[in-house]
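Sample entry (139 residues):
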Amino acid sequence: MKAVLDVGQFVSATIRADGHPAQVMRAWHDGECELYISIPILEDLRRVLGYRHIRKRHGWTDEQIDIFIVALGIAAHLTEGDLAVHVVEEDPTDDKILACAEEGNVDYIVSSDEHLAKIANYNGIMIVLPRRFLEILDR
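Predicted structure, serialized as tokens:
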């Protein structure tokens, strides 16, 4: 099963080791699903992890953030990042998630983002909460 996680899922996983996003990351680590990511998602993730209020919660240094980003880029399937979609009018920054999902031909987008949740299904790609994705994985 192939999935794209939105930036918020990665951030949540760095903050709460017992939360659903962290469990999704462990499922990927355990080989229960394949993770797809793009350079635009990695760039946005690096930016968000560097926010002062987020940094206070995860406690990582710049070097640790960089290591995390590089490791994700190596371990996950990296899409080309060339596709431009214009779907999420309320928050166009979410379009990079849809573009990555389409380029990777994934089955699911895992997101708690309200703008993505409203879409629910993008070109046959289901958009689900992390808890629901874990249920689908039967975890």
